[in-house]
Amino acid sequence: MIDLHLIGIGTGNPDHLTRAAEAAMRAADLILLPRKRADTADLMELRQMLCADVLRDATRVVTFDLPERDGDGPYLGAVHDWHTSIATCWADQIARHLPDGGRLALLVWGDPSLYDSSLRIAARLHAGGMAMRVTVVPGITSLQALTAAHTIPFNTLAQSVLVTTGRLLASAGWPPGVDTLAVMLDGGCAFRRLDPAGIDIWWGAYLGMKQEALIAGALTEVSDMIVERRAALRAEHGWIMDTYLLRRADLKP
Predict the structure, then answer these.
(1) Rounded Cα–Cα distance for residues 138 and 111 (Å)
(2) For the chain, what percent of residues have pLDDT higher than 70?
(3) What is the CATH number of domain 142-248?
(4) In sequence order, what DSSP letters do the residues of 115-174 get, joined into one string?
(5) What is the average pLDDT across 82-93?
(6) Binning pLDDT at 50, 70 and 90, where does residue 169 land?
(7) What is the pLDDT of residues 15-69, one digit of tens each?
(8) DSSP for 59-108?
(9) Distance in angstroms (rounded) separating the CA atoms of residues 46 and 41
(10) What is the rounded distance in angstroms from the CA atom of residue 44 to the CA atom of residue 238?
(11) Is the pLDDT of residue 99 over 70?
(12) How many Å from the N-terminal Cα to the C-terminal Cα in the chain?
């Protein structure tokens, strides 16, 4: 039996770790740290720093190479294939390092429930016959970090918020009947495709980290500023994680 703990570690600030997250890390027999492209080496270093600060000698930490998603072909098909490849990597690491079962932990940016596929990948292993029990340790999400950094409420009074992606915003535009949009995974600044009149934006990159960057204002005034700042930060650091909130400007918090 593999006792898998998916641990939300927040958006990059070591102080985002909860007591529950620290306890789950210390109780693990093995923590797997995925290694992606070279341009995200500092993200690996941050995970390793968290492990060094929290762990005792009993927990093993193993890094492994994570496959990259194929950028060609239909998006959903490529993602499904990618998840299958990741599940195979997890299974290989489990067979190598926990052949008799045990407690495995994976450190997940933000929270495992919000635009993260760890739960779906774990379900593939279970469906493939691996005896597995999954526990989620919730973490601070980028949306929580964004609204805290800008000191704004997530929703307006008695109204809802739609959480979406840059891909959907670019293809479908502003959804009808929605007053506030929280946009994630936007590598193309999809807000530029909107009619900016009457829309406010709160944007943040590297939320919770020392290089945190924030811009807020009327979309008509700050759209180009965000695009330029984002490009400069990506060039400087080699990677970027950002998100933003869009709201009709006539709405009161």
Answers:
(1) 5
(2) 98
(3) 3.30.950.10
(4) S--HHHHHHHHHHTT--EEEEEE----HHHHHHHHHT--SS-TT---EEEEHHHHHHH-S
(5) 94
(6) very high
(7) 999 999 999 999 999 999 998 765 577 788 888 999 999 998 778 999 999 888 8
(8) -EEEEEEPPPPP-SS-HHHHHHHHHHHHHHHHHHHHHHH-TT-EEEEEEE
(9) 9
(10) 14
(11) yes
(12) 48
Question: How confident is the model over 192-215, as a mean pLDDT?
Answer: 96
Q: Where are the domains of the chain?
A: 2-137, 142-248
Q: Structure pTM?
A: 0.92
Domain 2-137 has CATH 3.40.50.11310: no
Using alpha carbons, select from 49, 108, 194 the residue that is nearest to residue 183.
194
Q: Where are the beta strands (DSSP E) in 180-220?
A: 180-184, 199-205, 213-218
Q: Distance (Å, rounded) from C-alpha 80 to C-alpha 127?
A: 15
With tokens 């936007």, the residue in question is 186
Cα-based distances in Å from 181 to 140, 156, 163, 164, 238: 19, 11, 6, 7, 27
- Give tens-digit pLDDT for 117-127: 999 999 999 88
